[in-house]
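Troubleshooting entry. Yesterday's outputs looked truncated, so today I'm pasting the complete records for two proteins to confirm everything comes through intact. If either block looks cut off, that's the bug. Protein one:
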Amino acid sequence: MDKIEPALHFKLMAFTYKFRDFFFPRIDVLKEIGIKRGFHILDYGCGPGSYILPLSELVGENGKIYALDIHPIAIDMVKKIVKKNQLKNVITICSDLNTGLSDKSIDVALLYDTYHNLSEPDKVIKELHRVLKENGILSFSDHHMKENEIIDKLQNKGLFKLLKKGKKTYTFLKLT
């Protein structure tokens, strides 16, 4: 089981993300992936929900966003975003590993600045592989890791292959 950050630490992190998101809008990160209307997206480790609004716009009303985090405060923050903006395509999941999603039900999984904190990263990668559709995309970013470490960790089990490196993310293709 992964460790839950203390509430104060989490709230301070969420506050600093507001500045980051103002100067570096999350839509610019998401544009690297090629998300289309109707896609089903899993934001694994969604934190305070920085990607929820731009994801909702990209996938449209026929798409779906699953926002997963281990921290109940993160889930509450996402629920507030959902309520305030009357989003009907967002479902929250409070979990440290299992998504509860069906096999091959997700077009794109986001794993941003989470991997380095995972106590069982291989299990998380297997879970993401399980829920991704054939030719599904794992969009990965973790500023705590070097490029060769990222590529090695995600390709070494034969579940994913690097498709492209963007300015902010690495795009991995699900292998069958």
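Protein two, checking that the full record survives here as well:
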Amino acid sequence: MEELLEILSSLHPEVDFETCDTLIDDKILDSFDIVSIISEIEDQFDVVISAEKIVPQNFNSAEALYALIQELEDED
């Protein structure tokens, strides 16, 4: 989780990613951020995020993103 928080904080240091659960709903993350996050996660965690996993509920919070990463790691 720490690595994920570092990735997110590098994009938006002003956001408290540990508590925020409306990253998409409140438009904190834009499409460029999502692309950057996906790229960083795929490199850092050695997973592939398929198009069907790129949905708001998976990107609304760091917790949801971390759950997605764990799910993808378990598939390998």
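Both blocks look complete. Sanity check on protein two: The first helix runs from residue 2 to 11.
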